[in-house]
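So, can you check this record?

>
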Amino acid sequence: MQRNHARWWLALTVALAGGQTMAQTPTPPLACTSAEHRQFDFWLGHWAVHGGPDGSALQGTSRIERSDNGCWITERWHSARGSDGTSLNAWDAQYGVWRQFWTGADGVVLRLEGGLRDGAMEMQGELPKPGGGVQLQRIRWTPRGDGSVTQQWDTSDDDGRTWQVSFLGVYRRDAAP
């Protein structure tokens, strides 16, 4: 009786496992491990962001971290003037682009998309203007030889014919995050 019970239990276990024993079940491949998922890694870290006419004025701090599963990057920005914002950044493999979803303390939500161009991450989007139409937004993050990153945020009110610098900052690693 005990031998028949053991055979029945073994048959049921194998059937529920899809004909394979548990030790033979293949491990699913890890998501978010492609080279494209690592293209924005140069921005990861704890940063003091400087700007101004001579590049020395502290603009704020930023903490850029990768998710545990490697599928997205979060930014937590704190301006020296007291405002803040957060972005979620991810490689969208289905469409072959990087996407950023930014939300600021002023309530502005900005959606950008783009990718690596000439060694820098560049994304573009648009914001509605109060009087109608849209303002184009373009942000470019460029890694520098000393480990810092330059962020230049440009806007255009004439469909991209001309651009104005909205923000120019240098991200320098913060020694004490």
